Amino acid sequence: VNKHKPWIETSYHGVITENTEVVLLDPPLVALDKDAPIPYAGEICAFNIQGLESPFEAVVLNGTSGEGQLRARGLVDCEAQKEYTFIIQAHDCGSGPGGAEGKKSHKAAVHIQVNDVNEFAPVFRESEYRASVIEGKIYDNILQVEATDQDCSPQYSQICNYQITTARTPFAIDRNGNIRNTEKLSYDRQQQYEIQVTAWDCGQKRALQSVPVRIDVKPVCKPGWQEDRNKHMDYEPGTGSKQLFPKMHLETCGGPLSSARTTVELQTSHIGKGCDRETYSEKSLQKLCGASSGSTDLLPAPSTATNWTASLVTDSGRDSELIFRFDGRQAAKIPDWVVPQNLTDHFTIATWMKHGPSPGLRAEKETLLCNSDKTEMNRHHYSLYVHNCRLVFLLRRDFTQVDTFRPAEFHWKLEQICDKEWHYVINVEFPVVTLYVDGVTYDPYLVTDDWPIHPSQIDVQLTVGACWQDFSFAPELRCTRQLTAWCVGGEVKKPRFTQYFRGSLSGLTIRPGKIESQKVISCLQACKEGLDINSLESLDKSIKFHFNPAQSILVMEGEDLDNMNTAMRKVSYINSRQFPTPGARRLRISTSVQCFGEDTCITIPDIDAVVMVLQPSEPRITISGADRLIRPESDFRASDGIALFQDLHIVSTVTRADAAARHTARQPEVLEEIIHNLDYCDILVLGEELRPEEESLQVEGGALLGKHLDATNSTSGVSVYGVDSMSSYEQVIRQVRYQHWQPTQLAERRFQLTCSELNGRYTSNEFKLEVSVLRGSDPGEHISHIVAPPQYMQVRRPSMLHDLYPSHSSAAVPSAATVVIVMCIAALVVVVVLGIYRIHLTHQQEVKLEETAKEAGTSWDDSALTITVNPMENLQEPQAEEEADDEITSAESDDSEEEVDIQLPKVERQSRKGQSWGQISSTSAQKQQRVDWSDWDGSS
């Protein structure tokens, strides 16, 4: 009878090595039963493990003795789990076979530990290590390498040793992976070292792969901007913005910085008026910017009409508009008819000014603009002058305008007045005078009041570059100390100018009755080149930056060095001009650094660089159209005359540099058409000037409306000027009309058209047009192509004929008479082929034949190509033929030499086969017929 339960220990401790099956238990697994040796009741049949997740099982080795064994159901991994705990119970075999009514022992706890096997090798955390050192120093620790091991036990997972495997290297490594140099390194001897490092774990398993360690040797640290850059950078026009310092960074040699300030300056004072602006005239720029009309240009380009600037010194060689240099000896008197007469309280004075400090401790006044008495009293009514680097504006009214003590003199103290750089200066609106310098507003620091000027009958004189004064003295006047400058050798001198200006001026204008808006002022002084920042939105918010109005100076401030370096790499150069001025643009970078508690702790040297703007692809401006115009007399006498350039076309092409490089000997040159502005087109009369009593040449009224263009005409021609598109110029020039009231006296007129971009920097071809009068036409009747035959006929070719048949030369046509005969034969043969009836119906079919000729593509003027053969005329009389040859004019001869051998119809060529020029002439002399040139449509 099964009376007793099996008995086992209350707890077991076991050890199993990973990747093995048997667990070594302490104590061994044995179950005892007091029912022994009774069969079944005293035998042990099983050991049960509670916990399905346990990877172990217990088996009975001997049921009688109760011995058992604990085994792993699969491979045990220490790295996955180091320990296991579960419950085990023993079962006896019960009272009979099959374990019926078997009994269970109590539950025992089993604790199993998994022993590790050194199966993993050390692995380094990084694929490579980099560090830099300064030459001449011994470092205790340059950098540390670190390896790890995936084994689970401390013995096999810890790294016990590192080793440098590269031979003969000046470096050493300790057990913790710290690398140091064993000797002082020299930058001149070697700039970089590469060593291999390996590692061992505490089970003496070595890393499968060594790790490379690169150590850069740098020269002794010098604070400043460090970069791999070329100080000479090329800029190709039309490429937009280009980064200037893509790899630059600031080296501070480890100093504790609190802030850094960097200034990048684009030095362009050697280019025109401070930077690469559009080289249009000041008047054209004012139109482009929307400035108010009515301004008076006091410094125009010298010409017959504006001769007061002819004696001034110009700053030649600039790719910019006219600049006048004043050296203290030149000045200009403005004619009275130029001076604005209605200068009220609201007006604008604008100019470009470049001025430096004057020599001497107490410099004299330097006058830019002065309006003073012509004689006697020398009163200054208004003037703009510089005194001790102060800009002063004087405006005094007379008693007829105001009789109160009021502000009269306004002073500004600005650095720009004497910095020897170009500035755009505007002062407007009295009595609250506002000064704009480069678009920035400045208030006067000093305002002086004065009484109005007493009225007088003295005329005033407006001058530029000095002030007009009349030092006239009575003969008995003695030369005092104050007047010794004007008294030499007892003779009284009468100088006319004083207070000369020393500097440069350009675009000096006065606009009475109107003040300019801030938008117009900013547009007028805007620069077409400058500094820029790429991806401004990505700039760190801690960086503060500021541009000057011309964008030639950029100032950046920041506290974080990395952010400053990032901002510096975004600085770029941009030039928005389509055809920029080529040449060097100099750059200067200056930096100041502040440390904690100190004003400046590190000195950063300045850096100079150059941006070279390459030569742009030059445009080729081409004018095309009909070069010969023949009109009846009635058209010339019409009220609006004739339009000279109705089919005018202006195009501009350019050959790109990259496209030119791809050209080969077999490939023709390909030009790319571009769109840009013109600034003037001149229509000149060739030969004798126009006679105003008989003829006129002018632009049709209303043609200039809505355009930035003006026009002037004279007996020499018409000039259209202003900055506008080529299409606008085409529209205006197509409406230039020529009128002649007595066309019977007109032999011919020849005109020449040229256009320009950038004040003559790029000019077009010289397009010539010849105008002739069609004789014998009645103004009141329709002009027929079949007219009364003249005794001698004249054949002219259209200008396009030479283009259609370029292979023929003028040498192929012996004379004008021969050409006339050949044309007659061709017309006669065509008439024979088409039928006799076409001869009688020619006049009725005139309109239809003209339309047929147009559809065939001909662009000839039929009125000039009418061929008439008189059937009643006896061409066999040699005397009449000789007289006809004698009366051919020189103009006809010149034209006939340019005639092209026109291909005759097939029927005519067969009839001419085997005939010489003389035979053709004799044959034509026997045929008499009247033929219209329009009978042949040229299709054969």
Automatic annotation (TrEMBL):
GO terms for molecular function: calcium ion binding. GO terms for biological process: homophilic cell adhesion via plasma membrane adhesion molecules; positive regulation of synapse assembly; positive regulation of synaptic transmission. InterPro entries: Cadherin-like_dom (IPR002126), Cadherin-like_sf (IPR015919), CLSTN_C (IPR045588), ConA-like_dom_sf (IPR013320). GO terms for cellular component: cell surface; dendrite; endoplasmic reticulum membrane; Golgi membrane; postsynaptic membrane. It is found in: Cell projection, Dendrite; Endoplasmic reticulum membrane; Golgi apparatus membrane; Postsynaptic cell membrane. PROSITE patterns: CADHERIN_2. Pfam families: Cadherin (PF00028), CLSTN_C (PF19699). Residues 879-901 have a biased composition (Acidic residues). Residues 8-124, 125-225 form the Cadherin domain. Keywords: Calcium, Cell adhesion, Cell membrane, Cell projection, Endoplasmic reticulum, Glycoprotein, Golgi apparatus, Membrane, Postsynaptic cell membrane, Repeat, Signal, Synapse, Transmembrane, Transmembrane helix. It comes from the Eukaryota. The keyword Repressor does not apply. Residues 913-928 have a biased composition (Polar residues). Signal peptide: none annotated. The chain crosses the membrane at residues 816-837. Belongs to the calsyntenin family. This is Calsyntenin-2. It comes from Tetraodon nigroviridis (Spotted green pufferfish).
